[in-house]
Amino acid sequence: MKIYTKTGDKGETGLYGGTRVSKASARVESYGAIDELNAFLGMAKSRLSDEELNRQLQKIQFDLFTLGSESATPLDKLVLANGRSRLPLTISETEIRMLEEWMDAMDAKLPKLQYFILPGGGEVSSVIHVARTVCRRAERAMVALGEIEEVRPELLKYLNRLSDYLFVLARYTAHLEGEAETYWIPNPKH
Description:
The chain is mostly helical. The chain is built from six helices and four strands, in the order E-E-H-H-H-H-E-H-H-E. It has a two-stranded antiparallel ribbon. The chain has a two-stranded antiparallel ribbon with strand order 3-4. Helix 5 packs antiparallel against helix 6. The longest helix is centred in the C-terminal third of the chain and has 26 residues, at about 125-150.
């Protein structure tokens, strides 16, 4: 099977379910940002030596594929004539709770947050901060999609919680590597 189809040569792509849309559509922007986020998480994972954190990121990458496939499926195409979902998996409260549990476990081992933190804290932490900002962009793209088409609320909730998780993970990896956090403390003298 060839990887190229030539069907997108004129700026359109096919959604799951067969609908053709512009590659500049809100839906394509949404799942494109999710795909970019997934790639940054792969980069972060390749630099992490902690087995448990790698396991968490692998699960998140899997869940992002699930979220992306749902994002690529218009809601009117999601349910088949027999009432079953076209997709084998969808994001649920289970995945959202898992992020919260992982965050709580890491946060319990970190110094109390008192100031805003400048992105950085070592190579791994920096890559995770980039992933966090891409996650926020994916969330904004999903909100924009939700303003013109119906989006299940779990998708937005997952992305919102994931960006929080990535913030805590960036702090935690910096902590594990002994990297100091740089705080944003406004100095009125400057």
